[in-house]
Amino acid sequence: xxxxxxxxxxxxxxxxxxxxxxESYKIWAxxxxxxxxxxxxxxxxxxxxxxxxxxxxxxEAIKILNID
Length: 68
Known about the structure:
Elements: H1 3-33, H2 38-64
Helix pairs in contact: 1-2
């Protein structure tokens, strides 16, 4: 398997895990906000937001690689 074929498998996998991690950040942000850790909650929410932005880049890569 050449590198492009490997990427055709890796990129969708990475995208899925990125989405899972993003949701985890959001859940933890909600959990720590009830512990009066607003600053940490805000950072976790920013991590969630930035991770969601990465989805567009993963989708661009998938399009370039012609992955169905």
